[in-house]
Q: What sequence folds into this?
């Protein structure tokens, strides 16, 4: 038995919003792989829960008329990985969430929960930062959309207001078109582990594949929330593709990140693997985009 | 301290091919309901935080750790446990036989969970490499045999079903 004070099961998105207003103290539970574990640990013991688990309307990936890729917030990691639209347009997101926990966790864990937790180590988060994802929230006043960078307010804190639930993650066409990316999770085990550092890079090359038009890189666990490395991105933009550029790109991320010492890894070590992972992920992204270096 | 009000709900679902219903405490996990209300004792209580895989069951064909799945969420679902693999006269299924043949079992606590993940793998009908199988089996902890025999049993059954052995 879980120490749940009361369970309110939402029957629709509108119902979930009504329940949020009626029970402002209640916690939202989606897949449960964080909420129930924290409840077991005693952190959320005695809480009221609003379950949105059964809202199938929030599952699945689709393309909106303007080309925006829409990922329902309750889409599980394994379904994201297997989805043809994800594989075609944002393959790296499917690869990143395929490294969350283990297979059973990927069947229950949702991308909405992964982001709403607000933790820097979330395997989806760095890729969503790197692809300028937009978070969609639905509340009493309707739908609100904001960049994922603004959604994260601090460690474990996200911008979900009273009465709101997250309903989708959107990736605009401009953000994914022609882009290829790679994610590197550095962890101590190959499965069921939390990232020591997560690195997500993507590039868009010129038509002749000789020049980097745009490079983006984001990290998880390089700061209290996921973050982009602006120096490295500026350094690579417009530059000819080369192995030397990959090296400089990797070194430049050191100017942007601020990892901490923790029992998982020392700050120095995280700095080191951040530069190395950025270089490798950049190299692989260029290769996927058809470049030669 | 505020007294919690008890909340019950009736859940209708299909368990190992049979439509069932039970009125359960909404605080119950699926593990609790399967063990206590249906005596499905193959569903083991291990870590109870979704790390060890001992409580794994199939829900609509996908593997889930039932310890971190609320019983009431099973409404309308098809749930399968190890008990559902037995033939009408108690015969073992091919994957269970393979676990015996390969000595992929020692104390047996992790076995039901592993076997149900193996069932999901096998029912995909795909031919996986050893690396892929290792990754697909990585959500389970075994503290007795090591994992080689388990991998061998799954691979053997996969090959047999694909007509490769």
A:
């Amino acid at each position: 038995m879980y120490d749940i004070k009361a369970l309110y099961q939402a029957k629709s998105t509108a119902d979930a919003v009504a329940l949020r207003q009626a029970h402002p103290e209640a916690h939202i539970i989606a897949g449960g792989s964080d909420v129930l574990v924290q409840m077991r640990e005693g952190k959320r013991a005695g809480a009221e829960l609003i379950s949105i688990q059964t809202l199938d309307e929030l599952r699945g990936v689709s393309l909106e008329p303007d080309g925006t890729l829409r990922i329902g917030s309750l889409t599980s990691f394994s379904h994201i990985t297997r989805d043809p639209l994800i594989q075609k347009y944002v393959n790296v997101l499917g690869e990143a969430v395929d490294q969350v926990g283990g297979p059973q966790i990927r069947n229950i864990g949702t991308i909405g929960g992964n982001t709403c937790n607000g933790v820097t180590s979330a395997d989806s988060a760095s890729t969503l930062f790197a692809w300028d994802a937009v978070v969609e929230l639905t509340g009493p006043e309707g739908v609100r959309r904001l960049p994922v960078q603004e959604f994260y307010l601090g460690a474990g804190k996200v911008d979900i207001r009273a009465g709101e639930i997250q309903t989708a993650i959107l990736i605009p066409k401009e953000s994914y078109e022609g882009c290829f990316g790679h994610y590197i999770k550095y962890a101590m085990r190959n499965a069921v582990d939390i990232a020591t550092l997560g690195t997500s890079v993507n590039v868009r090359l010129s038509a002749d594949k000789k020049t980097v038009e745009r490079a983006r890189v984001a990290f998880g666990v390089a700061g209290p929330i996921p973050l982009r490395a602006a120096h490295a991105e500026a350094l690579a933009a417009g530059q000819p593709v080369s192995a030397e550029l990959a090296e400089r790109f990797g070194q430049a991320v050191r100017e942007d990140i601020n990892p901490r010492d923790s029992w998982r890894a020392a700050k120095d070590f995280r700095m080191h693997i951040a530069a190395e992972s950025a270089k490798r992920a950049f190299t692989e992204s260029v290769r996927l985009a058809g470049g030669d270096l | 301290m505020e007294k919690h009000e008890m909340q019950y709900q009736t859940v209708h679902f299909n368990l190992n091919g049979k439509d069932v219903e039970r009125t359960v405490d909404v605080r119950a996990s699926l593990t609790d309901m399967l063990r206590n209300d249906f005596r499905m004792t193959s569903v083991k209580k291990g870590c109870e935080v979704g790390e060890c895989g001992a409580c794994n069951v199939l829900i609509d064909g996908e593997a889930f750790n039932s310890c971190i799945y609320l019983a009431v969420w099973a409404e309308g679902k098809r749930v399968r446990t190890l008990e559902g693999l037995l033939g009408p006269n108690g015969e073992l299924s091919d994957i269970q036989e393979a676990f015996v043949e390969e000595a992929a079992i020692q104390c047996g606590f992790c076995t039901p969970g592993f076997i149900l993940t193996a069932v999901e793998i096998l029912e995909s009908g795909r031919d996986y490499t050893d690396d892929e199988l290792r990754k697909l089996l990585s959500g389970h902890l075994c503290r007795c045999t090591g994992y080689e025999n388990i991998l061998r049993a799954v691979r053997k059954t996969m090959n047999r079903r694909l007509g490769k052995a």
In short: Chain B has two domains: 8-81, 94-161. Chain B has five helices and five strands. Chain B touches chain A through 33 residues (CB under 8 Å). The radius of gyration of chain B is 17 Å.
